[in-house]
Amino acid sequence: MPRPANFDSLSRDDLLVAVRELVAQGRVKPQEVRAAADRAKRIAELETELARLRAEGNGAPTRSAGRPRAAPPTKAKRQITNTPKRQAALRRQGQYLAALKKLKGSEATRLRALAQEEGVPAALKLAERLLS
Q1: Is 108 helix (H, G, I), strand (E, B) or coil?
Q2: Around 51, how many Cα atoms within 13 Å sit in the side-chain half-sphere?
Q3: If DSSP codes are grouped into helix, strand and coil, which group holds residue 45?
Q4: How far apart are CA 16 and CA 129, in angstroms?
Q5: 52: helix, coil or strand?
Q6: Is 64 contained in some domain?
Q7: Percent helix, strand and coil across the chain, each rounded to 5?
Q8: Which of 22, 62, 82, 88 could form a disulfide with 28 if both were Cys (CB 3.0 to 4.6 A apart)?
Q9: pTM of the full predicted structure?
Q10: How sure is the predictor about 121, in pLDDT bands with cuts at 50, 70 and 90?
């Protein structure tokens, strides 16, 4: 990869001749030259605007750089009490899902329908019969 050239020592006229030569050789498109000129103009405009805004102070409150912001308050997680009744329900749910996973097609559909109509305990009894 070629090293970037130092153009500080060249005059504006020399740079203009060089750019025209590059365009004539087809190494640079005229649109690229215009885009570079527009970009430099836009950068100068933005720097001027930034300097004006800094001078104005724009009325926004400033924050001291050394003091970090406080963390937003977090919601406390709801503590779920694990009662014997809930523990049994979770165990039944696990057994039901395991049985459902082992059954295929119409048997699984039949098991789901029974769990909806009569509840999971009845569905577990049916699953035991179907799996044995």
Answers
A1: helix
A2: 6
A3: helix
A4: 92
A5: helix
A6: no
A7: 65, 0, 35
A8: 22
A9: 0.42
A10: very high
Q: Does residue 61 lie within any of the structural domains?
A: no
* Position 46, amino acid: L
Note the pLDDT tens digit of each residue in 6-29.
767 778 788 788 888 888 998 888
**Residue 50 lies inside a defined structural domain of this protein:** yes
- For the four alpha carbons of 48, 54, 57 and 63, in that order, the dihedral sign comes to positive
Share of the chain above pLDDT 70, in %: 88
For the chain, what is the mean pLDDT? 84
Residue 75 domain-assigned? no
The amino acid sitting at 7 is F
What does the alpha-carbon distance between residue 4 and residue 18 come to, in Å, rounded to a whole number?
15
How many domains does the chain divide into?
2
Calculate Rg over the CA atoms of the chain.
Answer: 38
Domain extent for 124 = 85-131
Site of tokens 């590059």: 22
Scanning 12-104, the segments in alpha helix (DSSP H) are 12-25, 30-56, 84-102
C-alpha 99/C-alpha 131 separation (Å) is 8
